[in-house]
Design a protein that fits this description.
The chain is built from 15 helices and 5 strands. The chain has 332 residues and is α/β, with parallel strands linked by helices. It has one domain: P-loop containing nucleotide triphosphate hydrolases (Rossmann fold), CATH 3.40.50. 38% of the residues are buried.
Length: 332
């Protein structure tokens, strides 16, 4: 009689699989119980503070948080999507729209976006992503129950942070946008030459990518369609900014940020990296000025100017909120 020896590797695989199936069952049960209301969508560029903001919004831990579901390289089911995928607001093809409806209803499950979800019962859904800015128009037009928050950070600070975070998955080739015909036809045709002639400098390319993924939603949205959350304003005036954000999310209900939430303001996100300015004792708002060359800044301002976005920050570290509101209102 042969003996079957215990194989810890196989046992571990089965245990991990059982845990995933159990979590999936819990996630789906909450969906059928109608527990995924409200639906808050946090969108922004990589290294713009979206993870930090999601930690603040879910400080109580009661939301189910989907961490970057629109990641075609790491999340199955989105293979037909590109990094920074664009959809026209009237797009109805099921191959494109069914996955979005599944994500924003809470019916979607994947082990990566749901990695940090461990509750039995949830009270709301928080979707956080860094590759979804070009979907803002479609979601706002077709999924009215979603409350969008667009996080905006100084493009030079974003570009520099990406350059330091070498293990991150970023778009690095702006010309890839030209492979999306609808995007080119609707928004990028006037900028095609700028995109085709971009240089090889990493910072310059990231400024161009930042310009595109902010220009499109700014042109698609009307005032009030989404909350524009500036990273710098939240960092410097957290109580004021959080109160305004909560008023938008919860339709005028007055919410005063408590001490437990405010204590998280200066705590780095769960994806800070060893070069995080807060950990290094540097200002996350000002430090880019000392690390980029004047030539890089000049080229970046020129690129932003092509899109009419050079006055969002200019060479300042802080945003001009009125300019952005006027840009969205088509007043500039």
């Amino acid at each position: 009689m042969s003996l079957k020896f215990f194989n810890p590797g196989t046992y571990g695989d089965h245990l991990a699989r059982a845990k995933q199936l159990s979590k999936q069952a819990i996630i789906r049960a909450n969906y059928y119980l109608g527990n995924y209301q409200p639906v808050i969508w946090l969108a922004g560029d990589g290294r713009s503070g979206t993870t930090w903001v999601s930690n603040l919004l879910n400080w109580h831990g009661s939301y189910r948080e989907m961490f970057e579901p629109f990641h075609p390289e790491l999340v199955s089911g989105l293979e037909s999507f590109k990094l920074h995928h664009y959809l026209r607001v009237n797009e109805t093809a099921p191959s494109q729209t069914r996955i979005l409806e599944s994500i924003y209803s809470g019916n979607f499950y994947h082990e990566r976006p749901d990695a940090f979800n461990r509750r039995l019962l949830y009270e709301g859904l928080l979707v956080k992503d860094i590759f979804a800015n070009l979907l803002v128009g479609w979601v706002k037009h077709n999924l009215s129950h979603v409350r969008p928050v667009l996080v905006v950070r100084n493009p030079f600070a974003v570009a520099l942070s990406k350059q330091k975070r070498t293990q991150g998955v970023w778009m690095t080739e702006p010309r890839d946008f030209l492979s999306q015909p609808a995007l080119v036809e609707d928004y990028l045709l006037p900028f095609k030459e700028v995109i085709e002639q971009v240089g090889d400098d990493f910072i310059e390319r990231q400024i161009l990518i930042w310009s595109i993924i902010h220009y499109v939603p700014f042109r698609q949205l009307a005032l009030g369609d989404a909350y524009i959350l500036f990273y710098e304003n939240l960092f410097e005036e957290p109580e004021k900014e959080l109160a305004a954000l909560f008023s938008y999310l919860f339709e005028g209900v007055s919410v005063t940020p408590g001490p437990e939430l405010l204590a998280k303001i200066r705590k780095p996100s769960q994806t800070p990296g060893k070069d995080n300015n807060i950990l290094l004792g540097k200002s996350p708002i000002e430090s880019w000025k000392d690390e980029l060359s004047s030539a890089q800044i000049d080229r970046g301002i020129n690129i932003l100017g092509q899109f009419g976005l050079d006055k969002v920050y200019g060479t300042r570290s802080r945003p001009d909120k009125n300019f952005v509101e006027n840009f969205i209102s088509r007043d500039c």
